[in-house]
Amino acid sequence: MKIFNKILILSLALVLCSCLQDLNTVPLNKTDFTSENAYENEASYLHSLAYINGYYMMVGQDDPGSNDLGFSDSGQSEFLRQWFNLNEMPCDALKCVWGDSYISALQTDSWGDGVNDAMTAVYTRAVKAIALVNEYLLQTEDAKLEARGQSHLIETVRGYRAEARFHRAMFFYVLMDEFGNPPFPTPQNIGGANPAQIKRADLFSWLETELLDLASDESAMPKKGEVGYPRPTKGSVWALLSRMYLNAEVYTGTARWQDAKDASQKVIDMGYKLQGTYADLFRQDNTTNGSANEFIFAIAYDRVSVQSWGGTTTFVSASLNEDANVAIGQHFGLEKVNFENWAGYHVPADYVERFQLSGVEWGNPDNTFGYDRERSDKRAFFTNLGCKETFDLSAMTTGWLCWKYCGLNADNTFAQGVSGGGDNKLSSADMPIFRLAEMYLNYAEADARINGGSVKDTKAVSYVKALRDRAGVGMPSDLTLDWLLDERAREFMWEGHRRVDLIRYGYFTSMNYPWTYKGGILNGKVSIPEFRTIYPIVQSDLSANSNLTQNIGY
Q1: Phi, psi of 414 (to 5 degrees)
Q2: What is the CATH classification number for the domain harbouring 61?
Q3: Mean pLDDT, to the nearest integer, of 544-551?
């Protein structure tokens, strides 16, 4: 069961204005609750936490077609959808044939410091979410509860506060990773001075301290199993630390490989379980089909009560054209496998090649999928139906299409909405942010970094083997760093990992690691300026906050 579902829609949480310059927490309209009365109802503490939890995917307080950022397309204002785009489109796994200027800039690595919808959505929503948490922390101090005559809630609310702090850390992590040197709003900035800017290494240090405090035995942060899915737990905290430590050299200049191994092991030891069938991780019923046992932290969607035209609705419908949708549906004895046919997202052949196995034919135009799925890596969900192999940004029928996210349940039945109409076009598939497979591969890569480029730790080998067994493919004789990068490409395709991985390996900007349309060049044999490893601070915030300076290169 999705824990917060309708609470997200009915939340009494305070809602932020669209202005970043003062970070005030004010109602969007006169019917909204304010800090003076929002917490008179004791249930409001959980409701407000639910709103924070939902900020990854919610675009406003009304229907999914309206948003509080003023975007003409509400789906494109969603945090998760655009965070995904920032981490996949500038790389090799995802190209899009839609003509939006921000998409063209991202996928040819040619963005500047002007308006870019993806950057604006991620930056603005992250800063607003942090301000939302800061206000929540102010309103849930022990003294505030005592003044309201709610002393009996203090212990419970301390747990809520810990969860809110985790969400704040997540949004700060995104700002650190994507924008390098972002503003650093604190509770003291609510209704006061503009926030100061913080350097990337300093933000890493603050995040590490904050997360270690949440992970400590004395913390009120719930342990695994103490709160229902999809609420974060100490497992989520250690998973974020694992990812941060793996990329610490990028963020701070100092490698933290052993810390990455140790943090990953802490999560692994908590008892998360691999989903037996890889495909089920991304199916419409992944809340209930066992996938939640692998999910350490996930963003929950529901086509009835937590609706969005971003997130997994986009991932499901953006990838297939009508012919491919129908053909794959016929393979399963169904009318179709995707809700709609947006036909924009494509995968260049050079990325698809990472899934190809010796002796298995690929590119067969007479096959629905273009390859023998039964004998292939079970993480491959492609079709080249009606497409030419050489990808062209201006053509709908080139490259490969991907249906990793689709409208099917784990039993290969088509997921139906319960109330008809628009519900049948929206996805209920949850989006994993951290899952056990990442901890396995983080552990293995950190071990290879420590041991000169190859995995030596027998536990690391066993972790990788578990993933390969699930994928139905064998193990190589040597788990090298480059092989592990390719394995991450297979395991985490379209999950928002690719940009981070390529930067950590030094390949994102290197001429020696080409991909289709890298730097706007078809064969991708070009270097990208180093400053593009982080995005620019958005101009509207630079203009509003004199404490901020633009990142180098923009």
Answers
A1: -80, 130
A2: 1.25.40.390
A3: 97
